[in-house]
Model the fold of this input.
Amino acid sequence: MTTQQIPVVVLAGFLGAGKTTLLNHLLRSARGTRIGVMVNDFGDIGIDAMSVAGQVGSTVSLGNGCLCCAVDASELDEYLEVLTRPESRLDVIVIEASGLAEPQELVRMVLASENDRIVYGGLVQVVDAAEFSATRRRHPETDRHLPIADLVVVNKADRVAGEELEAVRRTVGELAGKAVVVDATHGRIDPELLFDRVVPEGEIEGQMSIEDILYALDEDDAHAHPHTAYETVSLTAASPLHPRRLMAFLDGRPEGLYRIKGFVDFGAADPDNRYAVHAVGRFLRFYPERWPEGEERLTQLVLIGSGIDAAALRKELAACELDGPQDTPDEHGMWGVLRYVQRKEAEPEARDQEGS
Done:
């Protein structure tokens, strides 16, 4: 069986955009999920324990199983090794980049890591809606950062009037290309967009806890919505999928579709293995693993995004199913899938299918 890998999310944005606020929101709202935080900065995280982490190399506990390291980029692999040890039992790692960092360098380092316990979890770029135009003037590299993001959070949306906010969204969307763009107030996005939140034992999925209610009623956030809306589409198929048609779907997946996860049955194209699939933004990986003994052979996928057309996605995925004995992949049908199977002896692949 494939070892469960820990997603590593890179959180970037210029000083004052709201990265730390968003990170604090994730730490406070993702109860039951053990988060490792790597801070490539010396700013104020707003958590008491982090006052200890003002020096490079320190590691502190944030409570609830969460850990935090303050690191230089050169120490990335060293601390990934620490945070991915089995005894840490982390569910996700978030790297908060310095406000003046080049996010593509951190992404490249994560993709180049030889740590087989991690998987790339996406680049999240935070922009300040109220200061967006001024930020672009001061930091023209903004126009270079947005196109490589997987998710762009237009933060402080409550501080901008409707027409101005729409203009910011439009410009961000044009610069960001295929990246998913969502609005946020006080950095509040749903953790499910970034990673699978673990529901504490005894809690009902979707149930608000006392902490959630108090957070929602916080005086500073009285008018803030607790989460950015997102949509989930689930698919279970008893028929195997045609590898070429699935790859055509994945290569052309629509804007707004941010994450894909689950297992795929390719039937006779590879009867011995099912394929775990992990996609975030334009990043894609398949992980072949032996079918569990006695388990029904099904394709089970979950798609997560914002502004997606659920009915259209289901129709496109249904068209990937094999249609009877005459619908058989040719001998080279799996080649497209195998391009995205990571092999330890190979160099890491480009972060997206177009090589950008």
